[in-house]
Amino acid sequence: MELRAELCAVEVPPERYAELTAAAEDIVDRIADGEDVGAAIEAFNAATGHQYDAESFRLRCSDVDELVREAAQPVPVRVPGVSREELAEVVRRIRAVEGDTDYYLGVLEANVLDPRVSNLIFWPKPGFENATDLQIVDEALRYRPFVAGADGTVTR
User: Crossing angle for the helix pair 64-72 and 101-111, nearest 10 degrees?
Assistant: First the structure.
């Protein structure tokens, strides 16, 4: 199924990867040297639209490529009017475990309320291991958050 452009990962030119990789490696090296990287991270965030902090680079210092792949993609956003079928295609792309899995997981998380939607795919509950893409979407769409009132009452 074709997805709307706002749901799709983008094709990133090699030059863009190279530029982001150089910037990310510079930040990682400077962190290792104990230098202040605040301005460099602000510039990286401005160039990518993401919101990374020094810890993001510290945690991924051994795999800068993963951070760069994520940073090169647009920030996943909630898309008005997204259909069940479109979400099922997003789930299919996540399960295909191709290069943009993290991006599509972000798209799914941005478009359903269930904060544990990834569990439905990667750690399904017993009896749900062979669920179809559409069954996963339907289960995620059934989720309703609880709201606790000031008086202690809980509503959905």
Answer: 50
